[in-house]
UniProtKB/TrEMBL annotation:
SMART domains named among the record's database cross-references: PlsC (SM00563)
Keywords assigned by UniProt, alphabetized: Acyltransferase, Lipid biosynthesis, Lipid metabolism, Membrane, Transferase, Transmembrane, Transmembrane helix
Pathway recorded for this protein: Lipid metabolism
Alphabetical list of InterPro entries matching this protein: Plipid/glycerol_acylTrfase
Name of the protein this chain belongs to: 1-acyl-sn-glycerol-3-phosphate acyltransferase
């Protein structure tokens, strides 16, 4: 007798959630104390090895498979700039990069985020215009030119169908005389949902099973994802680029936006690439 898919989810769902949560707890108990001890003596690039392992364990526990295109820089002094689809993006990118995240300060109030953010050296910032000067000073004081940083330049999450305009305010910290130490290198990236719970989004799969946006409830969204079979996400790392000496931050933001948007399926840039490949 064949068991309907809905019945399988109802029977196996709680067991799947319990198994995933157990794997996350075990990985955290094994790696987080080691990271805490390591950071007492070192906060350089080596301090991102254990967080990367931890994020990799989480990604495996959550059954998020990554299709990787391009090669991320791993030499320090890189600002990775891209789109933001879900809180799970941090797990995906954290498993691929040895980098610090720039995140909104309201995430710091989420359960468990404060210790995780501290061990991953996350930079929490306010997105309010009135706090712009304070945020710039705080970020500048914490930046190190041997670190890599990840900036979700839209300033919020989306459904992932398109890339929202980039907010340019933080780019000035990495340009000209305000940049700390050596010149920063930019590397744009594009996150794209391929499938959720075994169904490709191009064939009607529910992209909101992974994407978190609008008025969604974070807790319910996580619980829903834990009950699913996971997701497939394509991560495209575009060619690194130096920051032109004569460019302003708004022009730079628009240039990066075009590059990131070109990585989404159906974009003119990708369509042209597909046509050339097939010729």
């Amino acid at each position: 007798m064949t068991i309907p898919p809905a019945a399988k989810h109802s029977v196996l769902g709680p067991l799947c959630v319990a198994a995933r949560l157990s794997a996350i707890v075990l990985a955290s108990l094994a790696l987080m104390p080691l990271q805490w001890l390591f950071m007492r003596v070192h906060r350089g690039r080596a301090a991102f090895v254990l967080p990367r392992w931890w994020f990799a364990c989480l990604r495996r526990a959550l059954s998020i498979r990554v299709i990787l295109e391009g090669t991320p820089r791993d030499t320090g002094g890189t600002l990775f700039v891209g789109n933001h689809v879900s809180h799970f993006d941090i797990v995906v990118l954290g498993s691929l990069l040895r980098a610090r995240f720039i995140a909104k300060n309201d995430m710091e109030r989420w359960p468990g985020m404060r210790p995780v953010g501290e061990l991953a050296q996350t930079l929490y910032i306010s997105r309010r215009r009135t706090d712009a000067a304070t945020v710039a000073a705080s970020v500048a004081a914490q930046m190190r030119d041997d670190h890599d940083l990840v900036l979700f330049a839209e300033g919020t999450t989306s459904s992932g169908e398109r890339v929202a305009p980039f907010k340019s305010s933080l780019f000035s910290l990495f340009m000209g005389e305000r940049a700390a130490g050596d010149a920063w290198t930019l590397q744009p990236f594009t996150l794209e949902i391929q499938s959720v719970d075994g169904c490709p989004v191009s064939a009607g799969g529910d992209r909101d099973g992974y994407a978190f946006h609008g008025e969604m409830d974070a807790g319910e969204h996580v619980r829903r994802f834990l009950r699913s079979s996971g997701a497939v996400v394509r991560v495209t790392f575009h060619a690194p680029m130096a920051i032109p000496a004569d460019i302003d931050r708004k022009t730079l933001a628009m240039q990066l936006h075009r590059t990131v948007a070109s990585g989404l399926a159906g974009s003119p840039a990708l369509a042209g690439t597909a046509e050339r490949a097939g010729a």
